[in-house]
Structures are given as structure tokens and as C-alpha cells.
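Feature request, filed as a ticket because there's no other form

It would be nice if the structure record came with a short human-readable summary line next to the C-alpha cells. Right now we just get the raw output. Example of a typical job, pasted below so the devs can see what we mean:
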Amino acid sequence: MRIQLPEIFTKIDPRIQLNLDRRARGIFPPATASTAEGEIAVIAKVSDLTSWLDRSEVFPGANLGNTPDGAKIVTARIPLNRVEILRQLPYVQSLKASQILKPALKSTIEEIKARADLLPPVTQGQQGKGVIVGIIDYGCDFVHQNFRNPDGSTRILALWDQTFSSGASSHLGYGRVYTQMEINAALRTVDPYASLGHDPGKASHGTHVMELLVVMVVAAVSLGLHHKQI
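Raw output as currently delivered:
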């Protein structure tokens, strides 16, 4: 016997359809770093942002801007059991599940001609020497081995924790700035986090971004480039 699915179900993103099918069989999405159990992360195109944000089942994420027709592209997390209802709202023009982006470095290197034998002669050598990279994010695991020199000292020039409401160490009048000297002193103690007064915890997005940059630097070195310090 063939079952005719409701029309709204056929209009939903295939990844969401898969989750709905699993839900019908008693399999619910587990909790992740960005969603609670039974929720999914989505990206939506909405023509009425205020109405979208007023929905109690919508936990908003980022506003990615306008489309040429004046709609908004936004991210959110929503309970899976409310997906079909939200999709039927007149101002929800599109609703898709988020997806994991996988690196395709090998293909990218070929496409942008960044392989060592494809680089022009002027790009060989220590082109990145002396470069300092500034990262705006939250959480920095300064103890991580990827951010330390072979002698154990830090490669970080300074760390500004903006969660502090005020601090004399910040030239902007708020936050707490940890200098390289202070970080190195903390690294020589038994508990560097307590000594410095900065513990990024497990939810440290900034640490992941910094690690990604380390990987990029290693890739650059393998192409004949060299970055002295991050």
C-alpha cells in the first residue's frame, strides 16, 4: 500500500525530511554543541523577520542579511516537532537544515594554483615572516601546545578578555588584557588557568579558530612559505 505524504512534507528540505522520518520511527536528534535534544539547526529565508523572531519555538541565531527581493536569511534552532508548522507560515519562504562543511583542501589548492610547483617564483621564501594575526572570538586556551614555542613559552602576544566589565589594563576602559609576560608566568605554574585568571572552558570557539590558523600555517610552510609568529 502506497502512502501519500502531505503536501507540506514534500516541500521541506530533504535533510529535514530525513529527520522527520526518523522522528516518526522514534529516533530523535541528540543534543549537540548548538542544539538541545530534539532540536535541529536551520537556515531560513523569511520575508517578515519580526514575526519569525516572535515565534516561541524559534531560538534565533545569526542574521545573515538581505536577499535581492528584500527577504532575510537567518539561522536558528527549532524543535523538530514544529518544523512542519513553521514551514507553512506565509513569511517562511525557505527552511533548510544546517549541514556539516567538509574541507576540500586538495581541490582548493589546485583551483587557486597554490601548490608549490604552481606558485610564481616571487612567492617563494619567507613571505609571511613577521606577520601578526589578530583573532576576534571568545575563549582562548592559552595552555594548548599549538600556541606555545618549543621551550614552552607562549606564542600569543596578548589576550583581551572582554567579559570583564572594567579593567585598567585595557585602553578602552573595559575588559582584561593579559600580556605575553603574564601568560608566560602563568604557564610556569601548576595551574596556569587559575594563575592567570582565564579559563576558556570547553565551549571555546576561539581556540578552534586559532587551531585552524595553525593548520593553515603548517600548510603554508609545506608550500615553501613561512610565518614566524601567530
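Something like this underneath would help us a lot:
The helical segments are 7-10, 14-24, 49-54, 83-87, 105-111, 180-187, 192-196, 205-222.
Residues 224-230 have pLDDT under 50 and may be disordered.
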